[in-house]
Amino acid sequence: MAQSNGGENLFRAICNATADAEDHDHITPTSKALMQAVHLDGYIKSLDEVKAVDVPRPNFESYLALLKQNQRPVPKEPLVHVQITHTAINHVDLLYAHGVHQNNKSGLFVPPFTLGLEFSGVVLQVHAVNGQKPTFKPGDKVWGGSVGTHAEEIIVPASAIHHLPNPTWSLHDIAAIGAGTLPVSYGALTTIAGLSAGEVILVHAAAGGLGVYAVQIARALGAKVIGTVGSQHKAAVVESLLRDPNTGKIPAGEGVVNYSKGGWENEVLALCKQIGKDGVDVVYDTVGLVQKSIRCTTFNGRIVVAGFAGRTGTGAEKVQALEQLAVNRILLKQIKLLGYRYGETNRRMPQETVKMWRGLNEMLIHEPRLVHPVVYKTYKGLSHINEGMQALRHREVYGKAVIEVCTEELALKQAQQFNNQQQASAVSKL
Fold this sequence. Notes:
Layout: H1 8-13, E1 34-37, E2 39-40, E3 53-56, H2 60-69, E4 79-89, H3 91-98, H4 102-105, E5 113-114, E6 118-127, E7 141-145, E8 153-157, E9 161-163, H5 171-177, H6 182-192, E10 200-203, H7 209-220, E11 224-229, H8 232-242, E12 255-258, H9 264-273, E13 280-285, H10 290-295, E14 297-305, H11 309-312, H12 327-332, E15 336-339, H13 342-348, H14 350-366, E16 375-380, H15 385-393, E17 400-404, H16 408-428
Parallel strand pairs: 10-11, 10-13, 11-12, 13-14, 14-15, 16-17
Antiparallel strand pairs: 1-3, 2-5, 4-6, 4-8, 4-17, 6-7, 7-9
Helix pairs in contact: 6-7, 6-14, 13-14
Protein name: Enoyl reductase (ER) domain-containing protein
Domain Enoyl reductase (ER): 65-403
InterPro entries: ADH-like_C, ADH-like_N, ER, GroES-like_sf, NAD(P)-bd_dom_sf, Quin_OxRdtase/zeta-crystal_CS, Zn-ADH-like_protein
């Protein structure tokens, strides 16, 4: 997961919070010193340890003080204080909590920290930096990515958030699509794989958070899609995305196969033969199935590796060893094997992220019906974080599990209240 010009270790220390749904009508974050966040002081041994706790609310003064404390430069862009309305639960949350993600092992993301990678919400206030004119104002509806989003509020650099791409999107729906999910699949398919119209793509874990949006993005680009899943109920989810809305049928050359069954590669090849192809052009692998995928990839095909969810597990259970490839297989089919880390790309080549977001926003603005949210369940309040993460751990979740922190209406009301307080404070100082 990426955020701009600050680093995960900085943002994990900016405390964020969330209130339970039962208390939505009583949330007054503009007057509270404390709020709730899914904050961990150390790596967990059991998901029972994951819960919302009271932490200090973030403010610009503490944010800038933390920059100084960590000997980090002041951002060259405005800072934005956001009331979070919705946050989504991701597989990476499980890995981070257990300390088994590569970012944990590299020291980039270590306790104490607040979980959560993506959010939507309403701007409370903006802090100009170096005289730069802010592009956001109080009351703006936004979505974005940063660490620490399982919370009530967050402070992020302006580049970490975006205006809603289309007025038809709700904050709930845009959170379900996810600023830390949709861009990953979009970047993998466009920037890395170069997927084009008429090609066939094999999307592994096609009912998962990254997968359901990869399926839709590929369709929007004019490609044909074959998805893999691990259960029948997830197969139904992907089939619903592939069916022609007019005929109710899945077009030739497309379909869903169960990769928990032996010989699934032959089913993929059979689907390709329906349209006269000897294999898929592109594979999008977030599971760890490269070796078997090569068998059903056409000559000169591309395989994009963006994760190993099927081998790293969900943090607590014993994991499978990572794949060991026979490189002659890559040579014989002249396969292009490509890796993609969205967060690391943003840290090393932020200009690539800007370019990618430009293309993604164009798609969402002009073709809003081509990509739509796929929601497993919406939980009312952070008190349900454990329930959601348990469902994710047991692989029950398809699409996204969303947590509603507060309603759009209440967040807008709070933004107005916050703005009124700021104006009154400014007048009193005159």
